[in-house]
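Q: Convert this sequence to structure tokens.
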Amino acid sequence: MAYCGFHSRLLGAFTLFCLVLSTAAFASSNPSYTQFGHSISIGPNERASDLTCFGCSIRVRGQVAGDVTAFAGSVVIEDQGQVAGDVTAFGGNIRFEQAVKVAGDVTVFGGEIRRDPRATISGDVTNMGGRAWIVPIFLAPFVILGLLIALVIWIIHRVRRPSLPPVPA
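A:
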């Protein structure tokens, strides 16, 4: 029995080693990009894993193996660009030109989607269009925090309020 357990542990360790090695090889051939204020552009012969942009835009003409996400920026996929994951824009627009393929979902909060009829999206398309959605999304946490603070202050005042002595008859 001990002999069989040793082999199963050895096989498990070898499988884990191969998985880590293949993930590292995939990551080196398809780098991920995260930018703050500088736009990301993937050319026609380039490949990337995940693209994330804060306050900037993303332009894809090549292949993306992961997700494409822009906060306060737009996403443009053109020239037969392909995305294997999801495409998301918060406070920006998404534009798909001809022969574009997206395997995942497409989501826009506070913007709009412009899509060529020949573009293919395999997942769901969600559009919380218009800039009006940005205000409730960003204000809701502050309103909840304000109500919580008001509740705490009310409870403290209620506990600290001195009770009145009984009125003599």
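Helices lie at 2-29, 134-160.
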